[in-house]
Structure formats: structure tokens, C-alpha cells
Amino acid sequence: MIDFELTELDQEILAEVRRQALICRKYARDLDENEAEFVPKELPEAKDFKNPFSLMSKHTEHDTPLSIMAMLVAAGASWGDYSVRMREDSGGLGNAALRASGTPEQIERWKDKRLAMAITEPSCGSDSKAIQTTAVLDGDEWIINGEKIFVTTGCRADGVVVWATLDKSAGRAGIKSFIIMKGAPGFEVTHKEKKLGIRADDTAAMVFKDCRIARDHLLGLNENIPKQGAGGFRAVMKTFNNTRPFVAAIGLGMAQAALDFTRDALAREGVEVDWDGGKHSRSAVQQELIEIEAEIEAGMLDALHASWLSGNGAPNNLEASIAKAKGGEVARTATSRCLELLGGLGITRDHLAEKWFRDARITDIYEGTGQIQRLIIAREILGYSSSELS
Ligand SMILES: Cc1cc2nc3c(=O)[nH]c(=O)nc-3n(C[C@H](O)[C@H](O)[C@H](O)COP(=O)(O)OP(=O)(O)OC[C@H]3O[C@@H](n4cnc5c(N)ncnc54)[C@H](O)[C@@H]3O)c2cc1C
User: Fold this and answer.
1) Closest ligand 1 atom to 372 CA
2) Burial class (CB in 10 A: 0-12, 13-18, 19+), 130
């Protein structure tokens, strides 16, 4: 039987996340307006609050599966703010790639480091097989040359998982990923982006100029020249099946924040949803509030489903893309619909509604845009390869 009840421990964890989210909100506007600053590693209030993840250590098989709790925690934290946390999160997207594709030795060696992920280049975004960064083996070292842009946490990370090609003519088959730590000769972070939203997040550009790294920095293989699949495109792409539902949940947390704010603001003006009356007896505003809520809930169920599958070791390529496509779209449209309902209140910087609208936009762009997710969904359902449908 499917059971959607939260246990006492689940509720304790989520209540703690909510308490901390409200504290994080106090810092959100200031960090948004001072984009050059970095989010502190720890907020001054941190000593008074437990790490919600420490509560997870009490988790038993009777509690909600961790794959589901991770989604609820992600949405609950971004309900507070996209970037501000009581304590800095330990991992970036590169850590997810390390866990998904690293050898046991590599995982042990770099598991405590914060790793960003660098795929995108000035001339290649959605079409990631077109990357131009090269990797050439020279004795016991790889020489990396190329340029990467839009690297999340690129400034603060200890290192970065970099996609590079061994053979440009081989397309996907030539692409491998490499762990490059800060301080490697020839590796330079050149720029921190100024952005529409998620301004407290650092987004970096970086250059690799004859950058030398040891041979065993090839992700997924530490001995020989890569055999098929090791550290390669397909293996690392699997990372996204775990992280896309997360991105959806994060966007939906922001959408929920905007909806809660809007609902409260309208209630103060005497507009409250009449749940008992039918569609035809409600005002357009009441109906809009209900539809936004339904969309957020539908998106969240998609994210939970995709994450539950991966938590059970089941394939979720299709479901992860459905979750990301739906979650990204709802994050973008729900925050916009809320601004419409709020009128002028929505765009004033006295409140966070306009910030949630700006912040939510990214969830439909990175880790594959909404259009790219729809392509993946179509391929999965219709049975086309990426060369047949692109
Ligand atoms: C704040 C931020 C953080 C990011 N973080 C990272 C990161 O950590 N690591 C990283 O590697 N990258 C990161 N990115 C890059 C992000 O993943 C890319 O921006 C995204 O993949 C889109 O690539 P692009 O910007 O080159 O757009 P393009 O690929 O040029 O796409 C432009 C438009 O065309 C559409 N389009 C493209 N191809 C198709 C197609 N075949 N069919 C239909 N429509 C299509 C797209 O959906 C989009 O609407 C980040 C970007 C931002 C803005």
C-alpha cells in the first residue's frame, strides 16, 4: 500500500528545516543586493540550530525513505531562500558526479571536497557533445586546454569536474570527465557572473591553459586509458537522473513560498479560497490560487516519483526529465502568476515575491532546459536515439 503519512521523525526534520528557512530569509535580500559578497559559511544563529541532516541519522525503515525526504528537505530549504543556508552545504554537482561515476579510491580521496561541475562552454550549452575543451595524455599526466562558463559554486569550490574530449571527431564517445583541483598549474577562475536571480550563488567562468593533472584524475578510472564507458558521457550523464528531481524540488519550494505569501496578502484584503463552493461560484482570483496550488503539488509528485525510483535503484531517465520539465515550468509560471495577483506589492523590494520570481527562472534553464527535457521525454517514449531526435 502506498502511504503518504509523515512519521514523527519526518515531521521533526521538516519543522527544523522550516525554522531554519525562516532565519535564512532574513539574509536573503541583503545578499541579493550585494552580489559581490559570498554567502557566509555559517549564519550567526547556527549555534542555536541543529543540522537537520543530523536528525536523519535517527531514520529507520519505518520513516519516509531518504530519497523522498531529500526532496522535501530541498523544497523546504528553498522555501526560505535559494542560496542561503544555516550552514554551507557540503557538496556541489561535481560531488554527485563523483558519487555516481568515481572509483571507490576516487570517492574516498575527494569525498570531503566541494566539487563544482563544468560542462558548459562559450560555444556549447544544451548540445554538450559539442564541447571543445581537450584532454591529451602526456606520459602520466593529462593536459587540459579549454574554457568553461556558468560553473555553479566555481569560485568557492575546492575543485571541479571538467568535461573534456579526447577526440573531437568521436562526439559523445570522446568525452570524459576529469577532477581538477584549485591550484593545479594552468587552472584559473577568471570571472564571477552578475545575474538576474540567484545572485547569492556564485557562478564562475574558468580557463584551463596547458593545465596538467595526474593520470588518475580521470573520473571513473585510475589506471589505464579509458575503456568504453568509464568516466564517459553516459556514466556522468546518469548524475542528472539524481539531480534533476532536486532542481525541480528546489524550484517548487520557491513557487510555494510565492504562493503562501500571495495567499496571505490576499487574505488580509478579504480574498480567501472557498474550497466548498464549485468552480463557478468562485472568483477568478480564488480559482487562480487553487490552480497554482494544484500545479505545485503535481510538480512535487513528479519530483518525488523520480527520486523514489532512483532511491530504489530503478531506472528513472524518463521520470527525472518529466520532473525537471514540470518543476522548472511550474517554478517559472507559478511565481509569475503570483506577481500578477499581487499587483504592485509583487514588484516592490520590500518583499521577497519579486526575488522568488527572478530566482525561480534558473530552474528551467540549468541541468538541461525545459526544451531539452521535452526532447529526452519524447525520445524515451517514442524510442528514438538522440541522433534521430535532436
Ligand atoms: C546561473 C547558471 C548556473 C549554471 N550552472 C552550471 C554548472 O554548474 N555547470 C555547467 O556545466 N553549466 C551550468 N550552467 C549552464 C546551463 O546548463 C546552460 O545555460 C544550459 O544548459 C543551456 O545552455 P545555453 O545557455 O548554451 O543555451 P543554448 O543551448 O544555446 O539554448 C538556447 C535556447 O535554445 C533552446 N534549445 C537548444 N537546443 C535545442 C533543441 N535541440 N531543441 C529545442 N530547443 C533547443 C534551449 O532550450 C534554450 O531555450 C548554468 C547556467 C546558469 C545561467
Assistant:
1) 47
2) middle
